[in-house]
Amino acid sequence: MQHLWVAIDCETTGLLPRARLIELAAIVFPSQGPVIATFSELVRPPGRLPLLVTRLTGITDRDLASASSAPEVLRRFFAWLPPAGVLVAHNAPFDAAVLAKETTLAGMGPLPAQPWIDTIPIARALISLPNYRLSTIADHYAQQDHRRTHRALEDADLVRRILQHALRDGLDSEMPHLFRPMLLSSP
User: Fold this and answer.
1) CA 13, 15, 19 angle in degrees (round to 5)?
2) CATH of the domain spanning 4-183
3) What is the average pLDDT value for the chain, to the nearest integer?
4) Prediction pTM value
5) Angle CA(63)–CA(17)–CA(84) in degrees, nearest 5?
6) Are 182 and 116 in contact (CB under 8 A)?
7) Chain centroid offset of residue 84 CA
8) Pick from 22, 25, 11, 12: which is nearest to 157 by CA?
9) Gap between the Cα atoms of 91 and 183, Å rounded
10) Cβ burial, residue 82 (10 Å; 0-12/13-18/19+)
11) Neighbours of 139 (CB within 10 A)
12) Residue 116 half-sphere exposure, CB side, CA atoms within 13 Å?
């Protein structure tokens, strides 16, 4: 079955429950074929960025000073998001929780009821690796070094590539033990 996929990644100020969104990116693509559309925006959080986040992402307070607020970015994102797309993320519960928190804080109501799938259990089912970090899985499939991650668009593209490789290497979206859509929404 041919699906419309949306690889998504959120960069944040840290870990939940205090994490706030600082970058959101997504890539729309078919099971096989080229990218259809991309979305990528920085998000101005309340307060300053921790130095560790700047070191990890390269994003600075200066970069975020002219960025839009989370409610503005989320409105544009949800208007852009294809309603039939299956959202794909590496550690999907984290990205869904960040978006749920930000939509709740913005008074925007619950997340759209779209299915999410997570690349971590997919990779665990298909390949044996020392760990299942995004960069490790991407290195396995691409035979390249992907140490520079932690920017949302680059990470979303790695998620896209991982899923497309997994689909070519035996992942069948009709196999319920490998393809487990989760409906994640705001609390």
Assistant:
1) 45
2) 3.30.420.10
3) 86
4) 0.89
5) 75
6) yes
7) 17
8) 25
9) 14
10) middle
11) 16
12) 23
